[in-house]
Amino acid sequence: MFGFVVLHYLVDDATAQCVDSILEYCGGESCRIVIVDNDSANGSFERLQARYAETPGVTLLHNAANEGFARGNNVGYRYCKSQLHCDYIVTINNDAMLTNVDFMPLCTEDYAQTHCGVIGPDIVSLKDGRHQNPSYGIIRTRSEVNRQIRRFRAILLLLHLHLYEPLVRLKQRLGHQSAADSPYTHATAEADANRPYKLHGACLIFTPAFVQHYDEPFDPRTFLYFEEHILWMRCQTAGLTMHYDPRIVVKHVEDASTDSMSATTRRKMIFTLGNYVRSLKVLGTYTH
């Protein structure tokens, strides 16, 4: 049995597109879908309730507060494990869509061959066509965590002092990279077996080995960001491997919910970087 957890916040059109893609490619007796609403206050949850009221295999859960990515997905994962007794649990962003009619058979084949803990598909960004899996920029030492915290705190200070934008314009004129470049190493379309990689959080397939070991996939201390790094650490701790399968393709629109929440670029940057710092502190508890 496959359980799909779709975390919803505000944008019901995106969530419906995601859910409909699951129903199209994986619908049937062996598939269950759990939509978890992170306390949307715009009527979108009620619209989803009406839309899927008569759809077999679709359950809607409502959180009393916005729990963020980790805790919100944990709610759906726990429901899939304890109530629906799913063998495989897939967490998928509401701005992502399945494309494979053989999604479930490929996952079970991968697990039979590798006995891995987590499977990652080829996630293709609809913004720029970039392949977002796998990624090799894993932050796994205490010194690197601290360096990134200092870096993001410095950018936050510049933003609050309204000095960041002039500095970026100056650096651009001088031909330097932006100070806010992501710490992530860009993904490639091929996995290097000799290098450890993490898997993008837009779609993660947790296999029976992982589901049997963990009651929650994500550390509940984070709200948003760096969940992939922490998940890599959790797999290392449990002796579980990650497996990238380019045969499974997921399309990713990107940032539908966070874009709807933060209207301006500056406000969104402050929101993002603040959560970067908080999540990095959590990641630091896994490092040496």
Automatic annotation (TrEMBL):
This is Glycosyltransferase. It comes from Bifidobacterium pseudolongum. Pathway: Cell wall biogenesis; cell wall polysaccharide biosynthesis. Belongs to the glycosyltransferase 2 family. Keywords: Glycosyltransferase, Transferase. InterPro entries: Glyco_trans_2-like, Nucleotide-diphossugar_trans. Residues 12-132 form the Glycosyltransferase 2-like domain. Pfam families: Glycos_transf_2. One of its GO terms (molecular function) is glycosyltransferase activity.
